[in-house]
Specification:
The structure is a homodimer.
Chain A lengths: L2 E6 L7 H16 L3 E6 L5 H12 L5 H25 L4 E4 L7 E2 L8 E3 L2 H9 L3 E5 L2 E3 L5 E3 L4 H13 L3 E6 L20 E3 H9 L7 H10 L3 E5 L7 E4 L3 H4 L5 E17 L4 H11 L4 E8 L4 E9 L3 H11 L7 E14 L9 H11 L4 E7 L2 E7 L3 H11 L13
Parallel strand pairs in A: 1-2, 1-9, 2-6, 3-6, 9-11, 10-12
Antiparallel strand pairs in A: 4-5, 7-8, 11-12, 13-15, 13-16, 14-15, 16-18, 17-18
Chain lengths: 412, 412
């Protein structure tokens, strides 16, 4: 049996009318001969309401109890979804994460999936049933309920698709797919028809919403074809797939901007092996998420070391750096808290030259000053003044023709 | 460790303030040196809201999915309850029915408990934790979530108390305990300090709310001391316990009235073995709950057979009787749908004479006509016109001095 996993987010199941609309889409897919496994999130704002209920009782609730509480949102959605299908004449059965043995580690509020009992779902599909699985949740080895953290339902869907050998994993959302950049900043952005896992990983880690990075990572690891679509229309969305030769012709697939960034620079750190490791181990222990790191020697004995963080982590990072700075003989600490990072992403960069040049040229023409530059194999990022971030993004989008479909762009 | 099970109903956990109040009571009990297992119901009107959500999608929802849906209400309560205790500085852990292996049969919406993993709870109590268990729910052998039906949380509490060898099972509610009769009809009714399981079973099956009959049955079977108390004050409530010699001195413990009753009489049924069984098997298949049955021979060949039912079952019962009446050669069917049943209950009846006489005398004096009479070892019930039901109850209450505490009543 050909199998499709269809994931509906909270806005797509927010009320009875929307659940019915989603159910109709499932039935359409069943009529095409597919076995359908639905993954549903909690209805609308329900998770937020439950969090508010919890905080009213306990400003610092135990994480195990939060997971026990929040997982009820998805459980309600899936049973209601099954009822909607039943009322339309289709046999459906809902499962919690625990019921399909979605076994995770025991890290409450951000657990990682270890295994899934795909057999139980296969048996139900073989009986002609539509299977509805609660997203976002699992159980640990001791049957405690765990949740997968932000974007958890996407991860559930992709992991299920992998475990079941599904032909495709459709992620329904309230936009038409993945855009070349944020249309709120660059209104001419266009929807991509296809993007590689690696590009999507870069885009997601650079703050492009829609798909969560862990779900994309799962998709890449198990080669699950992910189709991001709009639950409100029939449009084709964006396919996230393995890289193919066609993609290489496209130099830059998308561009992103991350605001609210800060940069911490440690000036004149002793240039001896292990000092960088010492600093970042210390930051990691303080649970600071560090983005790009830049290290440059300034003499035989001394180096400068900079890294980017979200401004929400700034205070914690400052304290962590203060604790460690003497140990590495840091002469001075510079902090900038008004930084944004503009990035371009594209697998074509591997085989094309001149991308950096073109990007810096566009920024120069727009009179945007570049604070620092970092690159990966398929990404170039520049740190700029936060005030100039939108101007910078627009200049980059125009330079790389991100207002045109990939096929229509100037070939190199 | 001495263990107490404390059950809080939906009104006792309806909002944050009430959860906190319940949590304080739990802490008071912990301070007295008890290991406390809390059983909580769904918050306030939540179950009703979830039922409305379900019916909006499916007028006839599959029972398995209803249980999957409704069980979330209790799951939310228990995690929130654990958070409240945590915020007050106490270590608490919540469990769903599934997590403590509350195994039931697979009869969705009215499952029966088969076994409980008391060990998991004992281990947590031994760690110094307060354990909060979701009432009303279990799982079947295939891990489907089941619910126990009306009064299910009481049943969970008493079953847990039995499984854990608890010293007492406290049922917190919004009244002070069990009253001699319904105070809305007989305002002078008094709270009983103690009642036997058997009396409580009779009272509960005669519609006296507060405790559900299955929970009382569990208590009797496993000899669990049940204490029905008001969550809003510190008053002693009513103890439901095994019968003791003291109780025998009390002839009538309580009185009840059941309105909305109907009586169906099958006149001139063939008086041969197996006919009654045939009729009641047929009614049972139609899911009609039959109360008192009266059979009287009217000749060697013929008998009359009457039974009482709730008026909500009347239509179904009529149809069932119509289907079977020719098979038993019934000559005529009489139906009265304006009946009420007034009953007195008391273990003392076993050893005292004259109770029926006194009851009929009181009714005669009040000029209430008696339609029919049924009795058990510890109960006398009379069917009367529904219009006269309240007058009848009052007359009986006065006759048996149910406005006085048991010790203060006239001794026989």
């Amino acid at each position: 049996m050909k199998i499709i996993v269809q994931k509906f987010g909270g806005t797509s199941v927010a009320n009875a009318a929307k659940i019915r609309r989603a159910a109709k889409r499932v039935i359409d897919t069943v009529k095409k001969g597919y076995g359908v496994v639905v993954v549903a999130s909690a209805r609308g704002k329900q998770t937020d309401e439950l969090i508010a209920d919890a905080l009213e009782l306990d400003p610092n609730p135990p994480k195990r109890e939060m997971d026990q509480l929040l997982s009820t949102g998805e459980q309600q959605s899936v049973s209601l979804f099954a009822m909607a299908l039943h009322a339309m004449g289709y046999d459906a059965i809902s499962f919690t994460g625990g019921q399909i043995r979605m076994i995770t580690d025991g890290v409450f509020t951000k657990a990682r999936i270890k295994s899934i009992d795909a057999e139980r779902i296969h048996r139900q599909l073989d009986l002609g049933r539509i299977v509805i699985v609660a997203g976002f949740q699992g159980i640990d080895e001791e049957e405690n309920i765990t949740t997968l953290g932000r974007g958890g339902s996407d991860t559930t869907a992709v992991a299920l698709a992998a475990a079941m050998g599904a032909n495709e994993c459709e992620i329904y959302t309230d936009v038409d797919g993945i855009y070349t950049t944020d249309p709120r900043i660059f209104p001419d952005a266009v929807k991509m028809s296809q993007i590689s896992y690696e590009e999507m990983l870069e885009m997601a880690s650079l703050g492009a919403g829609v798909m969560h990075i862990r779900a994309v990572g799962f998709g890449m690891r198990y080669n699950v074809k992910i189709h991001v679509r709009n639950s409100g229309n029939e449009n084709e969305g964006t396919l996230i797939t393995a890289e193919d030769s066609k993609m290489e012709g496209v130099v830059v697939s998308g561009a992103t901007v991350q605001k609210d960034m800060a940069k911490i620079s440690l000036i004149g750190v002793d240039n001896v092996p292990g000092n960088a490791a010492k600093i970042f181990a210390h930051l990691s222990k303080a649970k600071v998420v560090v983005n790009d790191i830049i290290q440059t020697e300034i003499s035989d004995e001394k180096a400068n070391l900079s890294f980017m963080i979200g401004t929400s982590d700034l205070q914690t990072a400052k304290e962590a750096v203060d604790q460690i700075k003497d140990e590495v003989n840091c002469q001075q600490v510079f902090i900038r808290d008004d930084i944004a990072e503009v990035s371009v992403v594209g697998v074509g960069m591997r085989t094309h030259y001149g991308v950096a040049e073109k990007m810096f040229g566009a920024l120069a023409e727009a009179r945007v000053n570049i604070d620092s530059i970092t690159t990966s194999e398929i990404r170039i990022s520049v740190a700029v003044d936060e005030d100039e971030a939108e101007k910078a993004l627009k200049a980059v989008c125009v330079a790389f023709e991100l207002d045109k479909q990939a096929e229509a762009r100037t070939k190199y």
